[in-house]
Amino acid sequence: MTPLQEYLALSMALFFIGTWGVVARRNIILVVMCIELMLNAINIALVAFSNYSPIGGGRGEVFVFFVFALAAAEAAIGLAIAIAMYRLKEKLSVDDLDEMKG
Amino acid sequence: MKQDLLAIMPEIMLIATAVVILLVDPLLPVDGRRGLSWLGIAASVTAAIATWQLRDEEYSVFSHSIAVDKYSIFFKILLLVVAALAMLLSEKYLFLKKRLLGDYYALILFATIGMMVMAEAVDLITFFVGLELMALCSYLLAGFFRYQERSVEAGMKYFLTGAFASNFLLFGMAILYGLAGSTNYQEIGDAIRLGPVPSGPLVIAIVLVLAGFAFKVGAAPFHNWAPDVYQGAPTPAAAFLAVGPKIAAFAAILKFFTIMLGSQESTWVPLMIAVAILTMIVGATMALLQKDLKRMLAFSSIGHVGYLLLAVIATGSSGRSIGMSSVLFYLAAYTFMNMGAFGVLVHMTNHSSFGDTLDDIAGAGKSFPWAAGIMSLFMLSLTGVPPTAGFLAKFYLFSAVVDAGYAWLAVVGALFSLVSAFFYLRVIVYMYMRSPEQELEMSEDGKSWDLGLGLGIAATGVIVLGILPAPVVDAAQNAVVKLLGN
Fold it and tell me: Scanning B77, B117, B289, B483, which has the fewest C-beta atoms within 10 Å of its C-beta?
């Protein structure tokens, strides 16, 4: 059986890739994708913990379903705001969020 | 099962009302929609009464994932007051900006449900669902004026930073689950206390949870979204966003850091001291530089978060009871003074070409005698001048910090509070002692009973909490008794 550490290493790696993407990417759609990637990294950790946990098995899997639901809702709302922004500015880059500063 | 439904009756009422509002809204002409705000307010008041009815018993329902006790009842009633005030402030403003839609009220109600769930959850999964319900609705509220670039930008910034921060919090919670093998607060707390738990992952979890919460309440160094969001969001929505999510997040922070991580004080207290001091520095110094009043209020609320974090630190040591109840009392005072201050801005925007800047508010003492008067009251309260709520809240909070053995932190807090007096009093000086460079164009369309009532409630709250704080202090002290049993 694959040891828990390897799942967690995968989860951490995905989480960092996602974090890096959110920080480094300029296109808002890609940033939203990276946020979803971070959520999937968390899902892997939750399922792995759930599978290896001696007592609380199952809870993690239930948690994952709620994270799925959230990811869907978040994507819907994020893209809705992105569409509103595109209609106004015809641009969709993080750098265009520059109306307010200080 | 009956017990379960009874315990969450207030939430059920709000959900039903929000759904009715969404269904009825498209059928109504624009004028008819003004009644929807009263429907929402009536639902909030009814839900608050229903919550109050549950005060004598303690319910631990839905497989021990929701605890309706005095603690959550205190927070739920406070949150319902916030929701009702936000709806009172909103109606006329939305009407004048031609965005009077039922969606707005439904979003406020849904966000309030999320916050209430955050306050009463004792299970990570339930807490997470409440958190995200609140967060998703807040992004939409910030971007509600979707034909205004600033509002959409506020919504987008709030969404990107908020979703990013939620992920950190969620990862921290996943690690806590992995360490303890349970998602129940109490069971996680027991597992961590009785150990053995590997310390590396535990520290990572604490840092992630702290960072996630710091984002949510707008604590430095994760505060950058707050000024932009409050400036860009519709002013009444900004009032709601500046108060509601903070109350809910602090309700959850207190539970996280006492029930779950109470045995790990030596790890999180130093971190939180650093965050609190940095937050107070940012709040006080940046607010000095702002010309836009909404940005100024945003940095001021960052400063208040710094003081509140000091009290959370105080719960991590011997002075537990007073530290915790001082957070509750401070949040109650903060609700009225902050909602009130934003409400005055809404009032001036409705009645004139007011543009939220310091220059625009010059001479308001003449053109808006009433509004300027209560704005002064709110500013004095935010500064912490007796006999207002802000004074007692700060006094109570700083004495809790001293009791907990952090006298030096209390001194630092008091110093920053002194600095903050400068920018609060500056508003009063501008209103009464400066004459406007450019006269505001006044308009008669802005008359609104709702807004007047909302401002009246906020002003009364500030004065009553400042003069007769005993009932609320007692409620706050009773509320925290059970949490301290751990």
Answer: B289
Contact flag B132-A42 (C-beta cutoff 8 Å):
no
Q: Scanning every residue of chain B, which has its alpha carbon at the shortest distance from the alpha carbon of A16? A: B168
Q: Which residues of B touch A (CB under 8 A)?
A: 124-125, 128-129, 132, 136, 139-140, 143, 146-147, 149-150, 152-157, 159-160, 163-164, 167, 170-171, 174-175, 177-178, 180-183, 187, 227-228, 231-232, 289-290, 292, 295
Q: What pLDDT is attached to residue B437? A: 78
Cα B1 to its chain centre, rounded Å, is 32
Task: Give the CA distances from residue B186 to residues A58, A97, B179, in Å, rounded to whole numbers and listed in that order.
Answer: 18, 42, 14
- Helices B34-53 + B9-24 axis angle, to 10: 170
pLDDT at res. B294 = 94
Q: Look over chain A and give the mean of its residue pLDDT values, rounded to a whole number.
A: 90
Mean pLDDT of B429-453: 85
Task: Give me the amino acid identity at B200.
Answer: G
Higher-confidence residue of A64 and A1: namely A64
* Contact call for B136 and A77, based on CB within 8 A: yes
Collapsing DSSP to helix, strand or coil, B447 comes out as coil
Task: Please tell me the distance from the alpha carbon of residue B335 to that of residue B333, in angstroms, as a whole number.
Answer: 5
Question: What's the CA gap between B23 and B374, in Å, rounded?
Answer: 38
User: Where is average pLDDT lowest: B24-33, B40-49, B131-140?
Assistant: B24-33
Given a contact cutoff of 8 angstroms between Cβ atoms, the answer to whether B251 and B119 are in contact is yes
Q: CA-CA distance, B137 to B126, in Å (whole number)?
A: 17
ipTM score: 0.96
Q: Provide the pLDDT for residue B213.
A: 95
Report d(CA B270, CA B264) in Å as an integer: 11
Among candidates B183, B232, B295 on the partner chain, residue whose Cβ is nearest the Cβ of A102:
B295
Residue B421 structural domain: 2-485
Backbone angles phi, psi at A100, to 5 degrees: -115, 135
User: B440: which DSSP letter?
Assistant: P
The answer to whether the CB atoms of B132 and A73 lie below 8 A apart is: yes
A49, B178: Cβ pair inside 8 Å? yes
Spatial contact of B302 and B226, defined as CB atoms under 8 Å apart? yes
Whether residue A100 is predicted with pLDDT greater than 90 in this model: the reply is no
The number of distinct structural domains making up chain B is 1
Spatial CA neighbour of B455 closest among B94, B47, B90: B90
Task: Decide if A89 and B149 are in contact by the 8 Å CB cutoff.
Answer: yes
DSSP per position, B189-251: HHHHHH----HHHHHHHHHHHHHHHHHHHT-TTS-THHHHHHHHS-HHHHHHHHHHHHHHHHH
Q: Is the pLDDT of residue A31 over 60?
A: yes
Q: Is B472 helix (H, G, I), strand (E, B) or coil?
A: helix
